Amino acid sequence: MYSFDYERPSGVNEAVSAIREDDKFLAGGQTLLPTLKLRLAQADKLIDLSGIAELKGISVSESEVSIGAMTRHVDVANSADVKSAIPALAYLASHIGDAQVRNRGTIGGSISNNDPAADYPAALVGLGATVHTNKRSISAEDFFVDLFETALEEDELVTKVTFPVPEKAGYAKFPNPASRFALTGVFVAQTAQGVRVAVTGAGPCVFRQTDMEAALSSNFSADAVSGIKTEASGLSADIHASADYRANLISVMAARAVQAAS
Amino acid sequence: MTVENGIGASVRRKEDQRFITGNGHYLDDINRVGQTYGYFLRSPHAFAKINNIDLAAAKAAPGVVDIFTGADMVADGIGGLICGWGITSKDGSPHNAPPHNSMAVDAVRHVGDQVAFVIAETLQQAKDAAELIEVDYEVLTPVTNISKALAPGAPQIHEEAPGNLCYDWELGDKAAVDAAFANAAHISKIDLINNRLSPNPMEPRAALGEYDAGSEELTLHTTSQNPHVARLIMSAFLGIAPENKLRVIAPDVGGGFGSKIFVYAEETTTIWAARKINRPVKWTADRSEAFLTDAHGRDHVSHAELAMDNDGKILAFRVSTQANMGAYLSTFASAVPTYLYGTLLSGQYKIPSIYVEVKAGFTNTTAVDAYRGAGRPEATYVVERMMDTAARDLGMDPTEFRLKNFIQPDAYPYETPVIMTYDSGDYPLAMNMAKEMIDYNGFAARKAQSEANGKIRGIGTAAYIEACGIAPSAAVGSLGAGVGLWESAEVRFNPTGSVTVFTGSHSHGQGHETTFAQIIADKLGVPIESVEVVHGDTSKVPFGMGTYGSRSLAVGGSAIVKAVDKIVEKSKKIAAHLMEASVEDIEHEHGVFSVAGTDKQMTMGEIAFAAYVPHNYPADLEPGMAENAFYDPLNFTFPAGTHIAEVEIDPTTGVVDIVDWAAVDDFGNIINPMIVEGQVHGGVAQGIGQALLEGVVYDDESGQLITGSYMDYCMPRADDLPNFRITTTNTPCPSNPLGVKGCGEAGAIAAPAALMNAIVNALGKDIDMPATPEKIWRAINSN
Ligand SMILES: Cc1cc2nc3c(=O)[nH]c(=O)nc-3n(C[C@H](O)[C@H](O)[C@H](O)COP(=O)(O)OP(=O)(O)OC[C@H]3O[C@@H](n4cnc5c(N)ncnc54)[C@H](O)[C@@H]3O)c2cc1C
After folding, report:
1. B168-205 in b/e burial notation, b at 16+ Cβ within 10 A?
2. Which domains does chain B have, with CATH numbers?
3. The last residue of a domain, from among A54, A77, A95
4. I need a surface site. Which of B202, B373, B376, B578 has the fewest CB within 10 A?
5. Is the ipTM of this complex over 0.85?
6. What are the pLDDT digits (tens) for B370-389?
7. Which residues touch B298 (CB under 8 Å, ≥6 apart)?
8. Are A176 and A234 in a shared domain?
């Protein structure tokens, strides 16, 4: 770790006006701190978001679940309100990393980082969520741009994420045996706007599987998707899985997500 | 009469209170006034010539105390690291052991090779300065795969090892084997890869070097499984300091699995540098360094063939293996694929003739050496995968095929064609018990049920044997070992009756403080709370050989028993004097000395007190109550048993669910069943890790280590493991006084073969470790 300055503001405005080039927001630190420790990243200053009360917490209405950027995975996983409004979202959060990671890691940190194998991006895109920042509101699909890349500007801070409550949703994850991130995760939702199928882990960035969406629109059942193949070209390949195998997992996980949908 | 907490009791481990409450003293917990911090600049390249190292900017960086390179050590007369076991090739030539400097002199040969040692006031400063070192590398083409390294035209890693060959070794009667194959009714063949593993002890390696300019004594705290051997090598071969001026201490050590047997570059450099700067130097590996530099395990490529007659009786066995040694020959690396491997290829079977040849070679990878099981898992894997293949070829049930070919219980001592003399055992008993435990006969019905659920079920057996308690000295010496393999102990009573046991064994998680205390409690009636076990400090304990190869109890425990026998003998004389009887009439049981035929008796405590306050004492006896002993056993011990694994595979993903596991192990007599059970659990877990999850991967082209962190190297977790059904059989070992055999490695030896046989049984085709979901899915979807 290289040395850096540290600040802990108590409001969003204070935080965004403090940030300069080469500074970083610090949320749960579960991604940022290991990369700093390994000297893979360097920051002049860390702006710790943990003192900003308005970034924390969950509120649920009839039509929407709103989760503050600094809400930890464990809080989403355990929230009775989330469990009853979008059980698949609570389930997803409960399967991120291990207990230590869930006790520190946040939704804002996770989506701002946009790891290709992260779980939350599947939920955001699958549910058609909106990312709110200090500057604007961005649809999930526009927010996740590419591998570790989002629509966020340097001085832009995620404040919360709002999820429309679906009729039904399910998530199925095939964990990478080593890291337990998603080797492939599929989030399926039946919403007022139609069926959405979002895939994480399999490619460089979360994406929608439109063939499966079409199939599920006419027949929302596991059988409708288990036979639908995804083109392997463009999917990721590494020592853990080839593109072919990931393509297969998309079909299998999609079927399981549909089966689990509630 | 049984003694509380004596032999056979599942006593809770005395040391766990300290470990679990964070009160252990691991190396990084130890700090000294004026301590500096060392950091190694390591090679980013797998293979490169070093044209120049420019230290100027780094030396001027804040906080830097000094920076050393390999050239400085050479200039100081420090020798290279050694391999302590000489192997002779088929043609009679000694193995090639190219120079192995602690830090690179003119070339780097694997990613992570040491290039410079930066010492600074803080670790951060040392790391900052290391970034300022400019190394002019001339990058060369590396080779990481052993078969490619041994092929003609491969990059030449060491001038001293043409063709990258370390040795070409053989064992057994080739002519007899060839003749048997020529006349065989059936021949079965198999090709196998034994995957490369990273040892991953919980505590990374570390060292703290100190120099006392007044006494000229060096003290090295190090994460070692055998501190005396480390001292011997550093003194006699590297020239760090004379043995009497070098103290090596291995404090609480957090696991080793073999990887802390070896004398490494970093520890050596740290103690050397402490004298150079005349200040304490601390070096602690981080996990990335552990992946890059802790000696790896396994990495064999083998072809095996089995000859059988018409009835399925085995006639002969031949094996050809390539073994990857890595970039340099580590401390005991040469012995692992030879005398710890070839000698076990008879398994539990009566095989009239066996021939094995092993080519060991160098690659641009981390050195490979002993890792839990060391050679014996490799042997078991070849033998047991071969047995299943042969049974499948013959259309026989694999357990029936094994039962037909087992060495029978009345055949001991049994001499194998590969120079081992098995001393005891009952292989059919363990096999039949394991089959019963897992309801082997009900498998077909369970398989049908799985099939109805869209799953593929398989069952697999491994009847393993290992040679533990590596010994005796004369035998290992004749096979090339550079050391003797005995063990030492001292049993010292304090005047108040408590006992300190000094042992040359070293505990790094095995629970010696409990097991050894139980021996004293049982033999001498001293409560285990009053027994202190001291190990790991060359200035406290007599010269010892350390802990590896499941030898601590069989060899180290036996040395304690020998010392206890001397205590008893002396105590009888004192008791006879004090109770006015003749020595012949003194009877001893569990620390109570009585005069035969009377109710007169004295306790061990009373006698020890009399020995230290000898007011009324035999005139011809020395005062005091302390005895030491060195024990050199008669033979190896031969733990053996059967493990059976049952799996269910999800064909849509290739995921293996281990649904059942039965283990029947013959460990001889058992001192603490709970500790033994824990060792089996841990060993099986590591074996399952090898079979399903673990595997070191290097990039073929660049030689970069891809599995350099837990993001990519998969260790087994609790939810990867089944519930184990575990039991033991107990044929006492005839070659040591405790009748014990050793249990530390059995699980890791048996498990990979059992599990892979189960998977192969399910799939109906061969597959290599690690059997990842994708490999299995591909096997299912290919024809
Ligand atoms: C062992 C381990 C296992 C894991 N397993 C999983 C898994 O299975 N699935 C999964 O999805 N994830 C997993 N993670 C990642 C985990 O979910 C992290 O919490 C997440 O990646 C980052 O969240 P954080 O709150 O820790 O963010 P930090 O590490 O603090 O920050 C991450 C990045 O986001 C930026 N940032 C943080 N908050 C904001 C904000 N509000 N606005 C703008 N930028 C911001 C930071 O500047 C930084 O660049 C794992 C992590 C570890 C260490």
Report:
1. bbbbbbbebbeebbeebebebebebbbbbbbbbbebbb
2. 16-23+486-631 (3.30.365.10), 31-140+202-255+260-293 (3.90.1170.50), 373-471+635-780 (3.30.365.10)
3. A54
4. B202
5. yes
6. 999 999 999 999 999 999 99
7. B194, B195, B196, B197, B368, B371, B377, B378, B690
8. yes
pLDDT at B470 over 80: no
Same domain, A189 and A102: yes
Domain holding A30: CATH number? 3.30.43.10
CA distance B221 to B218: 10
Tell me which residue of B647, B716, B656 sits closest to B684, measured CA to CA: B716
Structure confidence at residue B1 (pLDDT):
61
Token pair for B63 = 């906080």
Atom 4 of ligand 1, residue of closest alpha carbon:
A97
If you take atom 3 of ligand 1, which residue's CA is the nearest one? A97
Contact B288 A38 (CB under 8 A): yes
Question: Is B361 within 8 Å of B149 (Cβ atoms)?
Answer: yes
pTM of the model: 0.96
The letter for the amino acid at B216 is E
Domain count, chain A: 2
- CA neighbor of B721 nearest in space, from B769, B686, B754: B686
For residue A12, give the H/E element and its range: helix A12-18
Mean pLDDT of B313-328: 98
Do A133 and A234 lie in a common domain?
yes
Task: Give the pLDDT confidence of B628-645 residue by residue, as tens digits.
Answer: 999 999 889 999 999 999
Question: Are the CB atoms for B84 and B332 separated by under 8 Å?
Answer: yes
Q: Would the CB atoms of B777 and A242 count as touching at under 8 Å?
A: no
**Other residues' Cβ atoms within 10 Å of the Cβ of residue A149:** 11
Same domain, yes or no: A169 and A120: yes
A226 and A135 part of one domain? yes
Pocket lining for ligand 1, CB < 6 angstroms: A 24-32, 49, 69, 96-97, 101, 104-106, 108-110, 112-113, 115, 118-120, 152, 157-158, 180-181
Minimal-distance CA residue to ligand 1 atom 31: A109
Domain of residue A26, residue span? 1-54
In terms of domains, do A127 and A200 share one?
Answer: yes
